[in-house]
Every structure is written in structure tokens, then in C-alpha cells.
Structure prediction request, 368 residues.
Amino acid sequence: MSSTTMAAEQSELFPDVEIRCRDYRIGCIGVGMIMADVHLEAYRQAGFPVVALASRTEAKARGVAERYGIATVHPTPEDLIDDESVQILDIAYPPDLQPALIRRALRAPHIRAILAQKPLALDLGEAIALRDEAAAAGKILSVNQNMRYDQSIRVLRQLLDRGDLGAPVLATIEMRAIPHWQGFLESYDRLTLANMSVHHLDALRFLFGEPTEIMTVAREDPRTAFDHEDGIVVSTLRFPNNVLAVSMEDVWSGPREEGFDSDIYIKWRVEGTRGVAQGTIGWPTGKPSTLTYASALTTGGQWVTPTWDTHWFPHAFIGVMEQVQYAVDTATPPELSVADNVRTMALIEAGYRSIAEHRPVLLSEFDL
Prediction:
């Protein structure tokens, strides 16, 4: 293949979204790291209008609002939801508290759409109820599965859609990184599978469609001090056409102490009948995600490495909010719809059933 043809192939890959709409007033709830450093920074860069902010602690909200030039700070999340200037509600809140805020927003006539944090709720039953209540209210409810907008995952999906890799055979996501577990997780009976694996399992659904079964095993993480069952997690999924995928969340990843050279990363690899793609997720290192691929069909079997300067954090979050605004503007379902997210929640639920019953669990066991 000539260098000119190969360059043309790369020019048709799009790691970041086109901003089609930035016209709706956003109110944000929560001022933890993910909102203060990621959501709001993404919206600032994209020119999305954030008009109000609230948190459980008003003083913290005022500090973040001053940082971003947000004019209005409400004393409570409920007051923000009642603010008639807010058209899109963006929630970054614990999953046990989030459903009540969503339901209040569904009753607010001025709120056109809601972007909820993941996991949407503590269990599948509550997620299904929220899906159905949003549909009955005629409101857009979207769930922030932001890994779908990571640049390497987006380009990988484009390669799969183009057929560069042929038919998928095997996929792996290998995480060896140490999350900062938020304090509210200590009171839950679900940890890594619901709060970290959810990124990877949803990304696998985005890439390969609906899995037919999952087998999940777990053990405790030696570093996590509070009681938990699912610390280190490994899940094997089977998809139609016999595609296999493995997702591993190693939240231990070895000693992390003075003098120990820790190796922290998230890597993925997809093998197809006509090519291979592999890459890294930049979140643990603060670098852009990467992708390199070789195709017997489009690269002459040579490895090609598209590049970009944007990051998962914060740039992927531009795509997440953009798809909500575009859905409002066009009266169409968002790409990250609650109906789709219920299927990711079902996959999480199936993983917990697999851990408890020590067996592969079919997704057909769940009535969605």
C-alpha cells in the first residue's frame, strides 16, 4: 500500500467529536474531582454555557464557581433543580442519592434533559425504574459512560465499523491502576465491578454489541481498608459470533510505596481475522490514550499509529455533554441513552450473580 493511500485511511479516523450544539443552559450538581476538574473544564473548553452550580456543601460550590466564572450558586441541589434558567441538569453524585435528584428533575417542566453519573443506581431494578419514569415523563435521561468517548476507543470502533480488522475474534482490557475510592463507597456492598469495571464492560458493549453471557470472579484488594468483596475483578464475556472478551480490573497492581517502581497502566487489544489493534488508556498516566493497528486489508500488514493531542480526561466529556445537547436540539434519543445503559447495568448485575453463584450467567436471565 502506498504512503498516500495509507495517509488517506488515517484522515478518515476521528478521535474527537464535532460539536454540533452548544445552545442549552447547564446546571451542575456536585463539586468533587470529576465535576470540578473534568466536567467543568471540558465545558469551559467547549464553550458550553454552565449557568448554575450546587453541592452538598455550599462553600465548596462557591469556590468552584468562582474558578469557572459560574454566576449562580444554589444552597442545595434541590434549589438548583428548581431554577427555571436550567435546561440541562448534569449530576455527579453518589448513586444512592442520585435517583431522588433525577426524579425531582423529571417533574420540573423547564428541565429538558438530565445527564446522570454512572452507576445510574445501586442495582438493576432501580435503573429500570428510572428508565421507565423518564420515558413516561417524556424527558431525555442520559448516563455518563464517558469511556466511549476516549479517543482510542472511538478510533477502534471506527476501525471495526470499517472492517479493517475483519471479524472480531478476541478482545482484552487490562487495567493495573489504583483508583481513589470515594468515601461514600464504604457504605455499599458493591465496589470494583459496579464502580470501575462499569467503564470497561460498557466499552465492550459499545464495540461488540450485546454479550450473551458473563463469568466474573473476584477477590479482596489488600490495599482497600474497608470491607468489600469485589476488589480485584476478572470478567470473561461471550458475544454473538463467538467473540470472546476479557476485562481485568487489578486495583492492587503491586506495592505502591517509596522506592518501589510501580507499573501503572490500562491496555487493550482486539484481534480480528484480518488485523490487530492495541492501545492504552491515558487516564492513569495523564497522557493521551494511544492506538496502533495492522491490517491485511488496509495497511499491507504494517503497523500504523494515528496520533492526537486530546485526553480522555477532560476532552471525552465534551462528547458526553455534546450528545445530550444535540439530542435536545433534534428531539432524538441521546447516544448514551438510559435505555442502553440499563443493558450495561444488567451486565453488572449478571457479573455479581456470577460471583455469588460461581457460574457463567446468561444475560437472557434478566427481564429488561
About this structure: The mean pLDDT is 96. Residues 156 and 244 are 17 Å apart (CA to CA).
